[in-house]
Amino acid sequence: MQIRPFRPEDTEAVIALWQDAGLTRPWNDPHKDIARKLAVQPELFVVAVDEDERVIGSVMAGYDGHRGWMNYLAAADDARGLGVGRALVAHVEAALLALGCPKVNLQVRSTNSGVVDFYEHLGYRNDDTVSLGKRLIED
Ligand SMILES: CC(C)(COP(=O)(O)OP(=O)(O)OC[C@H]1O[C@@H](n2cnc3c(N)ncnc32)[C@H](O)[C@@H]1OP(=O)(O)O)[C@@H](O)C(=O)NCCC(=O)NCCS
């Protein structure tokens, strides 16, 4: 497995990965999410590929000057339990740390609580916060 920056030719494979992993939602256009990320810190959007260059994982991260954020972490169904998720998180943590980022945050949908154990296993803790959001652009 290799972790490398996302390339435009990965687009359809990455979107299929997100769909299979249950990460897409009708109100988020994944093509627009990718285009926006390519305009802001594109180096923090990476994919894991196998020896045949098949996309088997992804994570999209960013640093806002206060906190780092992680989104769209996914491992392909047939590549789970092999360390892809752990390697992607470690990659993002190292990249954020190199930017001086002191803390990483992420959000887990309430319908996806099973993944909390994965993050806790990697050292993440529930911050006991309420997450609020406001849409500024309708996709
Ligand atoms: C979460 C996800 C990325 C994990 O990827 P993965 O490649 O299977 O995970 P890894 O193989 O790297 O696992 C790393 C460690 O976490 C453990 N782990 C993996 N999934 C776990 C889970 N659901 N609960 C508890 N521990 C888990 C593994 O046993 C492994 O432990 P070890 O390294 O000490 O042996 C993957 O399950 C996935 O894509 N889920 C669907 C998408 C999703 O929910 N993303 C998060 C959105 S917030």
TrEMBL record:
Coiled coil (UniProt feature): none
Molecular function via GO: acyltransferase activity, transferring groups other than amino-acyl groups
Keywords attached to this entry: Acyltransferase, Transferase
Pfam families named among the record's database cross-references: Acetyltransf_1 (PF00583)
InterPro entries associated with the record: Acyl_CoA_acyltransferase (IPR016181), Bact_Acetyltransf (IPR050832), GNAT_dom (IPR000182)
Classification via NCBIfam families: PRK03624.1 (NF002959)
Protein name, entry field: Acetyltransferase
Natural source organism: Microterricola viridarii
